Amino acid sequence: MPVSPFGWVIERAQPWVLAGLTLLLAVLTFWLTSLGRELVNPEAPLGIVSYEIAGSLGRSSSILRSWSTDAKATAMLILGLDSLYLLVYPAWFSLAAARLGAGLGGWWHRAGSTVSWGALAAAPLDAAENLALIRQLVDGPAAAYAQLAWWCAVPKFAAVALAGLFLAFGGSAWLLARARAA
Known about the structure:
Radius of gyration: 19 Å
Strand content: under 5%
Largest sheet: none
Oligomer: single chain
Number of helices: 7
Order of helices and strands: HHHHHHH
Low-confidence stretches: none
Structural class: mainly alpha
Number of strands: 0
């Protein structure tokens, strides 16, 4: 039987943990999205995400030059809040995938466990990415930090996308199973 990273949480408490994570995720996502609007411009069409995936000294320099002093302070605040967010969203995706996989059973259970563990990989990747981005905000653009941020951001986004796809397809399978049973 697949092992979930949340096996240490009592089964009947898991829905409450997931509900709490959902609330935190919603509040932090709304807050970060609201703050991030200030960072969107032609050089950074995706705001902070453009900075995360800049990948080169030239792109990082261009993005940082395009931001005012206030925008850079906002970017620093976003990266600070992301230190909390990076604990919440991987845990949410991980627990949701583990619970959905276990609820569906069979190969879904194994896949859910694998996706659950994979989602947790986003946290250390996001933390390393944040450090690289903060160093550039403090010290100025640097090729090594821009590349480190990119090398952390891409697999982080891939892990989250994979978890999201699992939840979408698994949720559809769960709804179909319920519709057939009704």
